[in-house]
From TrEMBL:
It holds the Pfam family adh_short_C2. Belongs to the short-chain dehydrogenases/reductases (SDR) family. This is 3-oxoacyl-[acyl-carrier protein] reductase. It comes from the Bacteria. It comes from Caballeronia arationis. SUPFAM superfamilies: NAD(P)-binding Rossmann-fold domains. Signal peptide: none annotated. InterPro entries: NAD(P)-bd_dom_sf (IPR036291), SDR (IPR050259), SDR_fam (IPR002347).
Amino acid sequence: MDMGIAGRTALVCAASKGLGRGCAEALAAEGVNLVIVARTKETLDATAAEIRAKYGVDVKALACDITTPEGHAAALAACPAPDILVNNAGGPPPGDFRDFTRDDWIKALDANMLTPIELIKLTIDGMIDRGFGRIVNITSSSVKAPIDVLGLSNGARSGLTGFVAGVARRIAATGVTINNLLPGTFDTDRIADTLAAQAKAQNISLEEARARRAKALPAGRFGTPDEFGRACAFLCSVHAGYITGQNWLIDGGAYPGTY
Ligand code: NAD
């Protein structure tokens, strides 16, 4: 299916690896030119070069911390008029809620709530003026079903979800959509780190920890960044103009509810 977005420009945050990279690649596969953001220049430059070579689109790499005001300004300077904005950043650390300090909360809110809101604020009026825009926020299945050790994620991402629910409807007649993609368990570095910690705590091998985790999922396996990216590309396509304000779970059936 032709997604109808070839030649568009996307700003994809936190895109050197994992789900952000999956989104960047799937958009590039549709002919979308990219500005990709991540903190580590070498990894980011390598990703940019690979995407450029594979898909033949323009890829600009911006190394910065997207969760800071300097990062927001740099992203806008590098990509002043995106047609597509994919909001993403690293997730907050796990822990007991009693141990979370005010500073921990501010960091989580900056990364997973206030940065996407700021980037939406900085780009949405241009999209409205041009009559087309797609905003996709990478959040988490924890928004639908809280994960007890991820209190910072449950809280900060729910704040973003509430904000998006209001704005998406307010601008629904402008040609600009805003949706959230809620990943379950995907095979990325973040999950590899969690599995390594689990393996150590349970005194089992990494392979065993991985096999147990996969077996507990209805799909019997982790999702791939490519699958995640393809869903993002569809939401950014011309065919998804009537889908807005939605929270789309991509979790291999892990969420147990009927609705
Ligand atoms: P990942 O560790 O594989 O990749 C993270 C990417 O974000 C990297 O490119 C990294 O450089 C970049 N990044 C992190 N912090 C940044 C910052 N402050 N500024 C700029 N770039 C930054 O992670 P992932 O698994 O792809 O996860 C992406 C998001 O999705 C995270 O918020 C994570 O919590 C969330 N999530 C992931 C899963 C999963 O199964 N992988 C599940 C639920 C939620």
